[in-house]
């Protein structure tokens, strides 16, 4: 499966409640590997506003004009992060299932 196949897919909790869509995929470099190194999927960002998540302002690690950054971070408060091991991913294009309840999911900037 390609990572791009995950973007836009629905995410549901175990009860079938819609939580949002996969807006972004967070990756990390495997420690101790030579450059460029191996990359692993750390988790996914779940939310409703596609452009907001892709801009990166909601994560708190993008600098920009202060008024824009403040507004974008406020609008991005609905974003949640799910670790890769918290997901059941079907081989089809069906919705992903999240194992824990939504209240256990942190905001991406707090991960």
**DSSP strand tally:** 6
Q: How many independent structural domains?
A: 1
Radius of gyration from CA coordinates? 15 Å
Q: According to CATH, what is the class?
A: Mainly Beta
CATH superfamily: PRC-barrel domain
The share of residues in extended strands comes to: 25-35%
Order of secondary-structure elements: EEEHHEEE
Mean pLDDT: 76
Query: Which structural class fits the helix and strand makeup?
Result: alpha+beta
Q: From the coordinates shown, what is the CATH architecture?
A: Roll
> What strand order characterises the main sheet?
4-3-2-1-6-5
Write down the overall geometry: globular
Tally of helical segments: 2
Summarize the amount of helix as a percent range: 10-25%
Please name the CATH topology. Answer: SH3 type barrels
How would a textbook summarize the main sheet? Answer: 6 strands, mixed
End-to-end C-alpha gap? 25 Å
Could you list the spans in which at least 5 consecutive residues all have pLDDT below 50?
Answer: none
Give a written overview of the molecule.
- This is PRC-barrel domain-containing protein.
- It comes from Demequina lutea.
- With 111 residues, the chain is α+β, with helices and mostly antiparallel strands.
- It has one domain: SH3 type barrels (Roll), CATH 2.30.30.
- It has 2 helices and 6 strands, in the order E-E-E-H-H-E-E-E.
- The protein has a 6-stranded mixed sheet with strand order 4-3-2-1-6-5.
- The longest helix is centred in the middle third of the chain and has 10 residues, at 66-75.
- The two termini are 25 Å apart.
- The model has no long low-confidence stretch (mean pLDDT 76).
């Amino acid at each position: 499966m390609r990572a791009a196949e995950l973007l836009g897919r629905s995410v549901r909790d175990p009860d079938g409640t819609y939580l949002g869509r996969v807006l972004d995929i967070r990756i990390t470099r495997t420690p101790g590997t030579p450059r460029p190194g191996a990359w692993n999927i750390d988790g996914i960002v779940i939310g409703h506003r596609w452009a907001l998540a892709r801009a990166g302002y909601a994560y708190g690690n993008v600098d920009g004009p202060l008024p824009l950054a403040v507004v974008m971070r406020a609008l991005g408060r609905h974003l949640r992060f799910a670790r890769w091991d918290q997901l059941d991913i079907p081989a089809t294009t069906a919705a992903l299932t999240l194992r824990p309840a939504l209240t256990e999911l942190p905001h991406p900037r707090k991960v």
